[in-house]
C-alpha cells in the first residue's frame, strides 16, 4: 500500500518503468491505441499515458485488481489519454468485441497466469491487435528451459509454491504462441533485474 493514497502500490513498477519506457518510445512511436492486459496497480498505465501523450492508453484487469485500478485511473483526471479500465479476464470473451488496437502491452502477467491463460491471452491478442500492430511483453523468461539467473530460479520456486500453475515461461514457447497469433519477434530487450521486454510485430 502507498501510505499517501491508500491504493495498492508496486515498487517493482517504479523500478522498471523508465527502462520499459525507453523501449516503448520507439516501439509505440506510431501507435494510437494501446491495450494493456493485467494493469495491476495502474502505475504503468498512468506513467506511460503521461509520457506518451500521442496515444491513448487502455488499461484492463480482472478480479480483485479491478476496483483499485479503476479508482487510481479515475483520480488521474489530468490525463485525457488514459481510458477507464476494461474488465478483461483472458479466459472470458474480451469486452472490446470487434475493436482493434494498434499496440498491446502486458507486464509481469505470463508467469502469473496458468499456461491455459497464456494461450487464451495470445488468442485474444490475435483477435484484437491490428495488422502492423506492436505487442510488448515484459517479464522474466527462460531460454531453452534454463533459468537466466539464480534469482529467477528462486522466483520460479516461490511462484510455484504460491500457485503450481504459475511459473516463468520459456521464450521459445512464447514465440510459438505469438507466431500462431500472426506475430514475429522483432526484439528481445534486456531489462533490469533479469527481466526482458519482448517486442512482436503482427504481420498476418
Ligand atoms: C504480478 S501482477 C502484474 C501487474 C502489473 N502489470 C505490474 O507489472 O505490476 C499480475 C497481473 O496479471 C493479471 N492476471 C492474472 N490472471 C489473469 C487473467 N486470467 N486475465 C487477465 N489478467 C490476469 C492479474 O490480475 C494482475 O494484474
TrEMBL record:
- What PANTHER family does the entry give? UPF0585 PROTEIN CG18661 (PTHR20974)
UniProt keyword annotations, A-Z: Methyltransferase, Transferase
Give the InterPro entries listed for this entry: DUF938 (IPR010342), SAM-dependent_MTases_sf (IPR029063)
Q: Which organism is it from?
A: Shewanella algidipiscicola
Please state the span of the N-terminal signal peptide per the UniProt entry: none
Any one GO biological process: methylation
> Which protein, by its recorded name, is this?
Methylase
**Molecular-function annotations in GO:** methyltransferase activity
